[in-house]
Amino acid sequence: MKAAVLRELGQPLTIEARDLPSIGPGEVLIEVVACGVCHSDLHIAGGEWDLLKPITRLPLVPGHEVTGRVAAIGEGVDSLAVGDRVGVPWLHYTCGVCDYCLAGRETLCLRQQITGVTVDGGYAEYLKAPASHVARLPENLDFVEAAPMLCAALTVFNAFRKSGIRPGEKMAIYGIGGLGHLAVQLAREQGVEVIAVDVADEKLELARECGASHLINATTGQPGREIKKIGGGAHVVMVTAGSRRAYEMALRSLRRGGTLSIVGMAPEPVDLSTVAMVSGEYRIVASAVGTREELHEVLRLAGEGRLRCHSEVHQLDEINDLFGRMRAGGINGRAVLRIG
Fold this sequence. Notes:
globular
């Protein structure tokens, strides 16, 4: 099979011919049709995240927004059949028996395996996965449309729930990229007033199309002050950009008693004024991807046409060029590789 392989952190991926994965009991072999290109893939390949760098397996096939068809099933698999339309998310495996899993917080499982990090992912024509963690796709959802739902949409869905935002309240979203424009749609669905903040006018226009009520270009003003003028500030500020500067601006955008939702992972520490936090009684909530149960809900929303990803489609051979464009902020929405 053909695959894009990371052999050394910080180096370009190489397009190679590899053997098909061999499946064991409880596993399925999936013929990949599409795979989303997440900013996490870029940072993992660059070795830029200290917590993930030590567990990144090399050589590695990246990619964790994988959609395709079941090509073969292993012994004991009765939940799926050959030909089923499925998706493979970031959470490749969780144990199901630890305190976190039993409490419904499997994203914190200490024995988890991660697609495209600790095991091979979807930048390939085939991959294997445990049947227990493979999601069925709605029949009316295209493979390319479904791919970003497996991480980008799921991540902001989880963050949205944890933020505690309520209908009629204001949410400022910093970074209208692959995650941010989906967060705008989720907020719109819940009757939340959205303030979109970005440095690119074309991304702000995408936010408007997705339902944002207010647009702020962070390069031409002071977002915190402008947001404070809109009803005293945001009840929740969600940062989907991996930028220290975005977090610094976000903290100034909260109304008293507001919540900062951490989604985007900045590679460097963010300064925090404890005096400001105490004075405003602010709350900070972080969230990581989402559970299988939440993924089913996200796929349902997408299947009903209530959640759509603005995507551009590319071939596997273009992956290194795509990484370069992503570093420069040149993707409007999400990039998806069409493989099968």
